[in-house]
Amino acid sequence: MAIQKWLLFLFLHLLVLNIVAQLSDVRFDECGKNGNYTENSTYKNNLNTLLTSLSSKINNYGFYYDSIGQSTDKVSGIVLCRGDVELEQCRSCVNKAAQELVQLCPTQKEAIGGYGECSLQYSNNQSIIETTSLPSVLYFFWTPANASKPEEFNQELSKLLEDLRDRAVNGGPFRKYASGYATGPDDQTIYALVQCTPDLSPQNCLKCLTDAYGTMPRCPCLGKRGGRIIGPRCNFRYEIYKFFDVVLESPPPAGNDDKTAPTGNYNKTVPIVEDDKKDSLIIIIIVPTVTVVILIVCISVILTKKQKKKLVDKIQGTLGDDISDVESLQYDFSIIREATDNFSNANKLGQGGFGPVYKGKLHNGQEVSVKRLSADSGQGDLEFKNEVLLVARLQHRNLVRLLGFCLDGTERLLVYEFVPNASLDQFLFDQAKRSQLDWERRSKIIGGIARGIVYLHEDSRLRIIHRDLKAGNVLLDAEMNPKIADFGMARLFTLDETQGNTNRIVGTYGYMAPEYAMQGQFSVKSDVYSFGVLVLEIISGQRNICSRKGDSVEDLLSVAWLNWREETVSNLIDPMLRGSSGPIGDIIRYIHIALLCIQETVANRPNMGEVLLMLSSRSLSLPVPHNEVNPQILHFGDANSTISENKSICSSGNQDLITELHPR
How far is it, in rounded angstroms, from Cα 12 to Cα 14? Predict the structure, then answer.
């Protein structure tokens, strides 16, 4: 059994690493400054038409460009997916990027953005494909951990990147992409990929990648175990684990649109092995391998069922006879379908990690929010019902109330109370709406969130760790009271449990505690860390994300620690609050508490009960926060940096997509 568990762990480890490469684990976006458009303008209509059509026209190599309109109403767009991403996944990524960009840049005529899998750019300039000068905007991402023997690591990395660049440049007009690996110091394998948009000439692709490589000395990713630099027309990434799939080159299908192959001819073919001995050898290798994989999958299914059975027993043991009430919470599918007008786009409120959310109106006039879970969630009916019943029993004014559920074939629906003011991030990170959040309202929101978490951690029947606490998962009711939502990633503990471990890390990049993101260890202190990040965002009005753009590090936590050390924490305060009647002393005290929550040493963080006491008592003495471990992100610039009113420290935006990472 020990050997089987080891094989299962190895298989799942490789599987998760493969999944990591497929997921949108980073996000970047930028709104251009080359003019604005109005809501009902011809440009707006052309932009909508372009964005709607782009994903469906992407070729098998993950690339497409197009232009629509004339003169000042002309809009051009270009999309590129990572070379190893499957077509359907590519199209899904581009669709999501398009939806996000028009929301984040609601009036700007040009924008660029995307995820780890894809990038999208549109502009009102001349057709992007005809632009001779390459855009210089770059986005930097990196892994916090340092590589062993950084100088030797950087030397091997440089050789690998140059080799891949030369291969990508000669990749042909359909895909200028290359991936590979090299052996670094201490026999550590370095994996990397590089890519250009295939419309670039070999000379321009070479120049684009060379220029990107040249920015590495200015990027904190140098000497780290992983990093990536993303530009509009080329990008590269490296890690110490395999994050890409092998791409087999094949000739393009006949009749390709010239927009997918601007120049040149494609002459690469797949060699055919005709040696019978080689065929036999391949069969000898593949058959046992497939057998072992099938065996491992079967073992995985058995273990998963056992784990689910334990979860059911745990919930039933807590709720007792209440489990029989589950049917009273069940809605008929036809009622929900009618309430949401057959899940029409007009009623769509947003898209979460587990599926879309719709507004609905029941026969009695009650307004509800309906989350339509993805069909491939893999959860059984009994577990789903039991978890629904548990969440339905959570009654607190600062938690969104679950009214019921629906099970119909593959359909799994959750019905929540409707909260009219949407999520906190839609107010906090919008320049106009943020003005509605004076200090009285912000402090009220912070206190309400803290009370909701205290209930989950200490006062509910089971200790519940949310694991995805962020501004997008805090809803605001008509009186702007906060309500914590989305328990799709929550973990249940019995009251005597204090810590757990997982190989499947879920959450949102930028909010996850370091011990959780790196080692898979989570506890109530993981939520405390996320709460601290959220408090800093509420006070500053800025997002937190670990990235760098240009000459400045865009990381709210690093700026916060820097200003703490320099005794200039007032620089963190949103300019909209500085001139208000709100007491600066109270605001600085809240910053102090937030820093206590984001300390990297878990034992030094307070629990949420202590945090709530600190927030409510001005006379209580606060300990001094320490960032004991070297900061994950170093800040380059003036020690007295302040947060600009017009430029977000984290212009990459809030990451709504769920991240699944493997601890390393």
Answer: 5
DSSP state of 75: E
The tokens for 278 are: 């080689």
Report in angstroms the alpha-carbon separations of 460 from 263, 451, 494, 551, 614: 64, 12, 10, 47, 22
**Superfamily, domain 325-417:** Phosphorylase Kinase; domain 1 (3.30.200.20)
**Comparing C-alpha atoms, which of 129, 119, 75 is closest to residue 258?**
129
**Band of pLDDT at residue 655, cut at 50, 70 and 90:** very low
CA atoms within a 13 Å half-sphere pointing along the CA-CB vector of 464: 26
Residue 390: per-residue pLDDT: 66
Question: Chain-centre distance of CA 599, in angstroms?
Answer: 22
3-state secondary structure 520-564: CEEEHHHHHHHHHHHHHHHHHCCCCCCEEECCEEECHHHHHHHHH
d(CA 279, CA 269): 19
CA distance 52 to 175: 24
- Average pLDDT for residues 39-55, to the nearest whole number? 88
Give residue 493's Cα distance to chain centre: 26
Long-range Cβ contacts of 353-356 (<8 Å, 24+ apart): 353/488, 353/489, 353/656, 353/657, 353/658, 354/488, 354/658
Whole-prediction pTM value?
Answer: 0.52
Question: In this predicted structure, what is the pLDDT of residue 471?
Answer: 92
Identify the CATH number of the domain defined by range 139-239: 3.30.430.20
**Can you read off the two tokens belonging to residue 420?**
């009219």
DSSP-derived secondary structure letter, 329? G
Going by C-beta distance under 8 Å and a sequence separation of 6 or more, which residues neighbour residue 294? none
Residue 540 contacts residue 434 (beta carbons within 8 Å): no
Please check whether the domain covering 22-130 is classified as CATH 3.30.430.20: yes
Please, are residues 625 and 564 in contact by the beta-carbon 8 Å criterion?
A: yes
Specify the CATH architecture of the domain 424-661. Answer: Orthogonal Bundle (1.10)
Amino acid at 325: D
What residue has token string 């001349």? 126
> Which of the residue ranges 259-263, 336-340, 356-360, 576-580 has the most confident prediction, judged by mean pLDDT?
336-340
Helix, strand, coil percent content, the chain, rounded in steps of 5: 40, 20, 40
The two tokens of residue 585 are: 């002393």
**pLDDT band for position 244 (cuts 50, 70, 90):** confident
Which residues have a Cβ under 8 Å from the Cβ of 661 and sit 6 or more positions away? 20, 25, 505, 517
The reply to whether 325-417 and 424-661 are identical in fold is no
Active site residue ranges: 468
Quote the radius of gyration of the chain (alpha carbons, Å). 26
Place of tokens 């950084």: 150
pLDDT band at 265 (very low <50, low <70, confident <90, very high): very low
Delimit the domains of the chain by residue range: 22-130, 139-239, 325-417, 424-661
